[in-house]
Each structure stands twice: as structure tokens, then as C-alpha cells.
TrEMBL record:
One of its GO terms (biological process) is filamentous growth. SMART domains: FHA (SM00240), S_TKc (SM00220). It comes from Pichia kluyveri. This is Serine/threonine protein kinase. Residues 64-118 form the FHA domain. The keyword ATP-binding applies. It holds the Pfam family FHA. SUPFAM superfamilies: Protein kinase-like (PK-like), SMAD/FHA domain. Keywords: ATP-binding, Kinase, Nucleotide-binding, Serine/threonine-protein kinase, Transferase. GO terms for molecular function: ATP binding; protein serine/threonine kinase activity. Belongs to the protein kinase superfamily. CAMK Ser/Thr protein kinase family. CHEK2 subfamily. Residues 160-440 form the Protein kinase domain. ATP binds at residue 189.
Length: 487
């Protein structure tokens, strides 16, 4: 039976009349009236069980309706009790990269993409190669016709995205993925879809930087994709090198603090990556333990670990990550944006917006804080070490080396930190000067090594410093920690 006036595709279930047909292996028959060439096919839903139901061709129309009812103006009619009167609607959407199909679920028994329920009244993108299920019985693979396949391979054609979350931030989530062809496991930074102009600028800036950098101590960049996720929104996937050892933050939390020789090697590698960035006029602006990744090579059977690493660690390669706040900046230029992580941000970043300006030296302040945190396990600036407040401590470069935490740390290390945590950025060590400090070179420098006193905590609070490990275990902010643990 054909609806020739409306040129509809009609799908009949041959099993509607069991009295006339005793064959139990019945299948639905698709009759497509658009096969006369008047309407081009956009995609084919390829049946996963051709013994029961045929392929369905999706015509290149603005809207294609699928359902059971013959009176609801459905373009494709499926006489199956699990199929709703109007089960789903296909829409052809024009996107900046290419056209694509959006499917809206209007059913009671569900429409599924890759075995995930869309949900009634919700929509989902159908990509080439996706599995589409109509109710529980009809399963198809989506195959775009050659004329409509995207010119650029989509992320989902090239990678398998897992549910494993590697990290979460304000603007994006990082998940694990695997390259379908090579099998290489990578990290994918998936940006939250938004029309926010600030986030768009940040994404473009991060992408521009990642494309232009390449260094063994910086996380590797593989590819980028812009993918539609609904009719009106799209998101960006940045495919990055996956680092197996996790964050420096996790290492500090697990161990409480790091040894001097261990810290020396980690910071030395960090400085080499930072030296490269500064040499091409890039300021990172968010150096902290969470953005320092560790690629760990484990020992093999019978192989001893290498100093300064832990047991079962043969070597560690440090990788600088997360360039969301990074920026190209000229040799003699300044930038003025208030950004960074509070405990690691330099004093000049906290200046009044009318007078705020800073350059690459903000990264060197962060390096000083990082060395401090690695060696004693807590930051030099925090609410519990006040008064004054953490912001005022940073603005005044007010910090100390507290006993007994610093009693066993060599003077040469304290000397380096004191030359990095300097209020005046012009007097702060540059990355080149830091790399040439005696702690890394074991050579004498023109300036004598300072002997800095270790002092007892004499702050207004009756409170000892709270370690990174304790902070992570409590899950509290600096201010709440100060309120809970300090008088």
C-alpha cells in the first residue's frame, strides 16, 4: 500500500496477519517512494538484522518523521507495537563544518544512540557510524551518503571516547580516549558548550598556543575537532598526550612532601619547559601542582630505580599542562588580566585594575611557591598563617620558613626561594637565572648564599601550617580551614 500523493515511505510488518502466514521469521518491508530520483538521500540506516527489517533511507529534507501511525503525517511508517505514533523526528542541520542529522525522541519506548537513551523531547546528533535503536527491536548503523560525509574526519570516527574522567575545570572536562587506528591512549579536553565570548577567546588563545609549541617538558598536542552536540551548540575537542603518572599535586598529597633531590629534578625539568615558553614570549600564568604532570617510566624486572625517584620508578619526565590562561606576550610588553590560582599568583597580578600590569616574571613567582610547597608540604601563603589575609600576605611578599618544617632543608634552597618570592618583579630571578642557580648547577654564583632563619610560627592565629595533604583530605577552602583549625 503506497501513499503516492505524499510520496511517503511505508514500512509494513509482514507478521500483521498470522492467520494468512505461518512463517515465524517475519520481517518488515520498506517501500521508499523517493527512489524515483526526485529527492536525494542524505543517509541510510543500515539494518543490523536484515532477516527481520530492511534498511531505511533518510531523504534530504528539512524534517523526516518516523512513527507507527498512518494519520500523523509520518514519512516513514513502521507497523510495530513498540513504535510510538510519532516515534522520532530527523532534522537536517547545516553546520559550519558540514551538514548533519539531529534526531529528536518523541516516543514512549525510547530512541537510543550508541545504546544511550536520548529521552523524550530531547535531541541528539547522529554521526556517521553511530548505532541507532528505535525502541528495543530495531537497530541500525547510520551511514551518511558520500556526498554528505564531512570533509574532515570527525573526532568520533578517529577516537573512542571512554567514560574515564582525568580532570575537570571551570571551562572543560578531560577524558581518556583511544585512537581507533593506532590504539594510542590520549587525553581529550572537552570544552563546555557556551556562547560566552570570554570562554571563546580563551579557547582560541589556548589552541593557538598549543599548535605553536613543541617541547619534551610540555604536554603534547595531537589534534582539534569542532563537533556539533545539538541543533544550536557545538563544542571543541583538544586531543592531547596522556601522561601516565598523574599530577604533581597527587604526588605531594600521597607523600606529604618531596625530598630535596626529588624536588630539584622536578623543578629543573619544569624550568626547561618554562625557559622554552618564555623564549617564544609565552607566559603560562597558572603554574601550580595540578598543572604539572609526571610521565613515569617504571623499572623492569631486575632493574633498580634511579635516584632521585621512588622505588619501582626508573625515570620521570615532567610535563607542563593546561594552557587555558597562557598568553603570547612581547619581550617588552605587559598584560593586565586578573587570573591565576590564588595561592600561586604573583603580587602584581593582585594590583588594582587601574594600575595592574605584569609580564613573564609572574611565572617565576609561581615557581618559588612550587618549590616551597614541594619541600614542606604546605604553601607559603594561606589564611591560617595570618593575619594578615592570604591576599595581603602575597601583596606584601610576607612569608617565612617555619621550624621544624625547614630545619633540614639546605640554605641554598631557601636562598633560591627568597630570590623568586620577591615583591618587585624586576628584582625577581628570570628563568635563565634560576636555571643557573647553584642549587641546579652546583657552582658558586657571584651573589653569596643567604643564611635565612627558620622561625616559629608567630602569627595571630594559634595555628600550625596546614599541609596540602591535609587540605585535600578535608576538602575545605583556605578560609574554612582557618576557621576550623585556628583560633
Amino acid at each position: 500500500m503506497l501513499d503516492r500523493n505524499n510520496k511517503r515511505q511505508v514500512c509494513f510488518n509482514d507478521a500483521l496477519n498470522d492467520n494468512n502466514n505461518n512463517n515465524n521469521n517475519k520481517r518488515m518491508k520498506i517501500i521508499n517512494n523517493d527512489d524515483n530520483g526526485e529527492i536525494e538521500n542524505f543517509a541510510v540506516l543500515t539494518s543490523l538484522d536484515v532477516s527481520k527489517y530492511n534498511d531505511i533511507k533518510i531523504s534530504f529534507k528539512d524534517v523526516v518523521k518516523i512513527g507507527r501511525s498512518t494519520s500523523k503525517n509520518n514519512d516513514i511508517i513502521i507497523k510495530n507495537n513498540d513504535v510510538s505514533s510519532i516515534h522520532c523526528i530527523f532534522k537536517i542541520i547545516q553546520h559550519i563544518e558540514s551538514n548533519f542529522i539531529s534526531v529528536q525522541d518523541l516516543s514512549s519506548n525510547g530512541t537510543f544512540v550508541n545504546n544511550i537513551l536520548i529521552g523524550k523531547s530531547n535531541s541528539s546528533i547522529l554521526r556517521n557510524g553511530d548505532r541507532l535503536s528505535i525502541a528495543s527491536d530495531l537497530h541500525y548503523i547510520v551511514n551518511y551518503e558520500n556526498n554528505f560525509k564531512p570533509l574532515k574526519t570527525s573526532f568520533f570516527e578517529k577516537y573512542i571516547l571512554t567514560d574515564k574522567i582525568l580532570g575537570t575545570g571551570h571551562y572543560a572536562q578531560v577524558k581518556e580516549a583511544k585512537n581507533r587506528q593506532s590504539g594510542i591512549v590520549c587525553a581529550v579536553k572537552i570544552f563546555n558548550p557556551t556562547s560566552n565570548h570570554t570562554q571563546s577567546v580563551q579557547l582560541n588563545r589556548e589552541l593557538e598556543i598549543l599548535i605553536n609549541i613543541n617541547h619534551p617538558n610540555i604536554v603534547g598536542f595531537y589534534d582539534t575537532f569542532i563537533e556539533p552536540i545539538s541543533i544550536n551548540t557545538s563544542t571543541t575537542f583538544l586531543v592531547l598526550e596522556k601522561i601516565n603518572g598523574g599530577e604533581l599535586f597527587n604526588r605531594i598529597v600521597a607523600k606529604g612532601k618531596l625530598r630535596q633531590n626529588e624536588t630539584n629534578e622536578i623543578i629543573n625539568q619544569l624550568l626547561k619547559g618554562l625557559q622554552y615558553l618564555h623564549s617564544i614570549d609565552i607566559v603560562h600564568r597558572d603554574l601550580k601542582p595540578e598543572n604539572i604532570l609526571l610521565s613515569i617510566t617504571p623499572t623492569k624486572i631486575g632493574q633498580l630505580s634511579n635516584d632521585p625517584w621512588d622505588e619501582n620508578e626508573f625515570s620521570i619526565q615532567v610535563k607542563i599542562a593546561d594552557f587555558g590562561l597562557a598568553k603570547f606576550i612581547g619581550k617588552f610588553q605587559f598584560t593586565t588580566t586578573l587570573c591565576g590560582t590564588p595561592a600561586y599568583v604573583a603580587p602584581e597580578v593582585l594590583e588594582n585594575s587601574q594600575t595592574r600590569k605584569y609580564n613573564k616574571s609572574v611565572d617565576m613567582w609561581s615557581v618559588g611557591v612550587l618549590i616551597y610547597v614541594c619541600l614542606c608540604g604546605f604553601p607559603p601563603f594561606s589564611e591560617e598563617l595570618g593575619p594578615p589575609s592570604m591576599r595581603q600576605q602575597i601583596s606584601q611578599a610576607k612569608y617565612a620558613f617555619y621550624s621544624p618544617y625547614w630545619d633540614e632543608i639546605d640554605d641554598i634552597v631557601l636562598d633560591l626561594i627568597s630570590r623568586l618570592l620577591v615583591l618587585n618583579p624586576d628584582e625577581r630571578l628570570t628563568v635563565d637565572e634560576t636555571i643557573n642557580h647553584p642549587w641546579f648547577t652546583a657552582k658558586k654564583q657571584s651573589l653569596p648564599i643567604q643564611h635565612l632563619d627558620r622561625i616559629q610560627n608567630s602569627s595571630g592565629y594559634d595555628c600550625e601550617p596546614i599541609t596540602i595533604q591535609e587540605r585535600a583530605n578535608t576538602g575545605l577552602t583556605d578560609e574554612l580551614i582557618a576557621q576550623k583549625y585556628c583560633k
